[in-house]
Design brief:
Elements: E1 13-14, H1 38-54, H2 60-91, H3 103-135, E2 138-140, H4 148-162, E3 169-171, E4 185-193, E5 199-205, E6 213-219, E7 222-227, H5 228-233, H6 236-239, E8 243-255, H7 269-280, E9 285-291, H8 296-306, E10 313-316, H9 360-366, E11 369-373, H10 379-391, E12 395-402, H11 410-420, E13 424-429, H12 437-449, E14 453-455, E15 462-463, E16 466-474, E17 477-485, E18 497-504, H13 507-521, E19 529-534, H14 539-555, E20 561-566, H15 572-583, E21 587-592, E22 609-613, E23 619-620, E24 623-627, E25 634-638, H16 644-648, E26 650-651, E27 653-657, H17 660-674, E28 680-683, E29 689-692, H18 704-721
Parallel strand pairs: 2-7, 9-10, 12-13, 13-14, 15-26, 18-23, 20-21, 21-22
Antiparallel strand pairs: 1-19, 3-5, 4-5, 4-8, 6-7, 8-9, 11-18, 12-16, 16-17, 17-18, 19-27, 20-24, 22-28, 24-25, 25-27, 28-29
Helix pairs in contact: 1-2, 1-3, 2-3, 10-11, 14-15
Active site: 464 (phosphohistidine intermediate)
Cofactor: Mg(2+)
Binding site for ATP: 73, 497, 593, 621
């Protein structure tokens, strides 16, 4: 986590941000205990993921996938959020909390809730999802249930594919307790020397490169698998010949993997980050997961050697590390998955009547184009835009931000091809994108070798905005073509992340992006943008000004409404502004995927605020900010969540959406999300999320993601007819 304070100047936005004073006194008083705890709210988000895994109406393999997502999410929560909180406590730094509790109390509450959820997660696998898979013909079997023929098959597999790569490590006076890597699955083994009678301890790591679940020959058409730790643990005698295996138990350690870089003290950011990534592997332990049958002798040894407390131990039934359920995704059973959605190509980018290749630049010159992923294809819009720009001889320059991308990314390849073709290419690579740092360093160096101008943004700030800017010469005049998105330039995640992207040839947006890229790559300080709101200097001010305008409109009897869709709603100034708007009678609708510290429905404070959350096959990732403005709506889309880090420590950009059809599309989507006929979770004043998935007659409510795909396809057919 980057701890540097934001810059004092630059990266602004809007025409009159400085006219709004965020410290302005309001007559309406707000109660002290008005925020929900952000960490507990995050755990509540992961509980919503777990509820999808528990839902028998969700296809069985999708339920297994949600269990894996829950496990992966919780790992990151401990590695970053819990680790960061512990680090602040140990170093005496201020601990941000929205409820004023002592840090130790906050950590204890997190531990209690995390324990409850991990137990529920394990039980969901054992009691719900595993039986559902078995009923559908996919079994995860135990070694003891196998026939002699099956055991022989497993024995042969073990010796041919597993035994050669295992490395048992003894623990005795000559062999100190081994290093346990973070998130590795291990076996703690107690053995007795048959000659001396002395008991010893050994640790065996389950190699990550081996399959998590080993396939067995199918039986009566049923697919059968066995966990790798079960395969290994039933052949320990072969690993310790001449020894008596007394007991064995699985365990898994989570370490602090937060990254802290003091950029101001580093002459080379990449070298500093590479050094920090090496240190990440040796972060202090913060969680120990064990199987529920582990004996006290083994546990006491682990607690002592790992220097971990009993509060940090999670005793669980069933197999550890259910991230392995992602591997079941390779099973070819479409009947156990969501009905497939096939992305369409946006009508603006459709081939012509004779199936000729679409002219992307001509389409954008004609009108702004708003693309909604994954319902509309990333490959035939964003990717095609950049690939076309790389090959077009009239394109002189391409400027792009890269926060997270993927291996063998066609986006990166397009930038490389453009540079090799002699175009000016600037890539702003955010090498501090958490858990993608190493991959982004590789891409940065590959781009540099190809002649791309690679920069890493501004000291102390992550560059999180999603921007692509193409300069093209047309009849002796330079024209800008711009893309501003809510999601990463990542073809893989674009198929599962819901996002919007706006293509425009608007000169004002082009000038805004030229100024912004100049600031990110050089020394320019640009405080004003016309169609963009940019963090860290003015985005919060701009949103506060727009929210307050709705408050004033409501007081004057004018039309007033605020609609915000984000991943997280945490920032206290934004929340307080929404409370004050609610007190003035403004209808406030918040659509949040993850954390929400706002407390809706409190009499006298937030009775005009409703909060909804939607989770499903796609990860809701877009950010929308819409203000009624007395019947002349002002709407932005972009990359920023309502969090301190986004508003104070990141470069973020929102773009104003102006085309009436685009405004209608965004508002219709919000109408659907807020409708009582749509399946969603509702947040109460007590901080509890309640799922609404069935109507009064027990029928399933509308799935907004299915309905959106239907609506996109219907619009395409209607346009084709016209």
């Amino acid at each position: 986590m980057i701890e540097n304070e934001p810059l004092d100047a630059g990266l602004g936005g809007g025409d009159d941000d400085d006219d709004f004073d965020v410290t302005e006194e309001f007559d309406a008083q707000l109660p002290e205990q008005r925020y929900l705890d952000r960490e507990l709210s995050w755990l509540a988000f992961n509980q919503r993921v777990l509820e999808l895994a528990e839902d028998p109406a969700v296809p069985a393999l999708e339920r297994a996938n949600f269990l894996a997502i829950f496990a992966s999410n919780l790992d990151e929560f401990f590695m970053v959020r819990v680790a960061g909180l512990k680090r602040r406590i140990l170093t005496g730094l201020a601990v941000p909390t929205n409820v004023g509790r002592a840090p130790a109390d906050a950590l204890a509450d997190i531990s209690t809730e995390a324990h409850r959820l991990q137990v529920r997660h394990a039980e969901a696998w054992m009691n719900d999802v595993r039986p559902a898979l078995a009923e559908a013909g996919i079994e995860l079997v135990k070694y003891d249930s196998l026939s002699d023929d099956d055991k022989s098959t497993i024995y042969d597999y073990f010796h041919a594919q597993v035994f050669p790569v295992l490395m048992p490590l003894a623990v005795d006076p000559a062999h100190p307790f081994p290093y346990i890597s973070g998130l590795s699955l291990n076996l703690a083994i107690r053995i007795r020397n048959a000659r001396t009678g002395r008991q010893e301890f050994a640790r065996l790591k389950v190699p990550a490169m081996l399959p998590r679940f080993v396939p067995l020959p199918s039986l009566d058409g049923r697919l059968r698998y066995m966990s790798m730790e079960d395969v290994i643990s039933n052949h320990l005698d072969d690993l310790f010949p001449g020894m008596e295996v007394l007991d064995h138990h699985a365990f898994r350690l989570t370490r602090n993997e937060d990254v802290v870089i003091e950029e101001d003290e580093s002459e080379n950011l990449i070298q500093a980050l590479e050094a920090e990534l090496l240190r990440r592997r040796f972060g202090p332990p913060i969680r120990l997961e064990i199987t529920d049958d582990m004996d006290d002798v083994t546990l006491d040894l682990l607690l002592k050697e790992l220097e971990i407390t009993a509060q940090e131990v999670y005793r669980l039934t069933g197999p550890l590390d259910l991230r392995g359920l992602f591997d079941l995704g390779r099973i070819d059973r479409p009947d156990l998955r969501y009905k497939p959605h096939v992305p369409t190509t946006h009508m603006a980018f459709q081939p012509g009547d004779n199936n000729e290749r679409p002219d992307i630049f001509a389409a954008i010159r004609k009108n702004d184009v708003l693309v909604h992923h994954p319902y509309e294809s990333f490959a035939t819009s964003v990717q095609a835009f950049l690939e076309h720009a790389a090959k077009d001889p009239h394109v002189l320059a391409i400027k792009q931000t890269l926060y997270r991308t993927s291996g063998d990314s066609p986006i990166v390849e397009a930038l490389i091809n453009a540079a090799e073709a002699g175009k000016q290419v600037l890539a702003l690579v955010e090498i501090k994108a958490r858990f993608d740092e190493a991959a982004n360093i590789v891409w940065a160096r590959k781009l540099e070798k190809a002649g791309v101008h690679v920069v890493y943004g501004l000291v102390g700030l992550k560059t999180h905005c999603k921007l692509a800017h193409v300069i093209r010469e047309e009849n002796g005049v330079l024209r800008s073509y711009s893309h501003i998105g809510t999601g990463n330039y990542n073809p893989k995640t674009s198929r599962i992340y819901e996002d919007f992207g706006l293509f425009t040839a608007d000169d004002q947006v082009g000038r805004d992006l030229t100024r912004l890229f100049n600031e990110l790559s050089g020394y320019a300080i640009e405080k004003k943008f016309k169609r963009l709101l940019v963090a860290p200097l003015h985005l919060r001010k701009g949103l506060l000004r727009l929210i307050d305008k709705e408050r004033l409109n409501a007081l004057e009897g004018k039309k007033a409404r605020v609609r915000i869709k984000v991943n997280s709603m945490v920032d206290e100034q934004i929340i307080d502004a929404l409370y004050r708007a609610s007190q003035a009678g403004v209808s406030v609708e918040v659509w949040v995927r993850g954390i929400c510290s706002l407390r809706p429905g409190v009499a006298g404070m937030s009775e005009n605020i409703i909060v909804r959350s939607i989770l499903g096959r796609y990860l809701e990732h877009s950010r929308i900010f819409s203000f009624e403005n007395d019947g002349d709506p002002i709407t932005y889309i972009g990359s920023a969540d309502m969090m301190h880090r986004n508003l104070d420590r990141r470069v973020e950009a929102l773009v104003k959406v102006v085309a009436p059809p685009h405004l209608k599309e965004l508002h219709d989507l919000f109408d659907l999300a807020m409708s009582d006929s749509t399946s969603s979770w509702h947040l109460g004043a007590d901080g509890e999320w309640v799922r609404h998935s069935l109507d009064a007659e027990g029928k399933a409510l509308v799935d907004i993601q299915d309905r959106t795909m239907t609506n996109v396809q219907r619009r395409r057919r209607a346009r084709a007819v016209r």
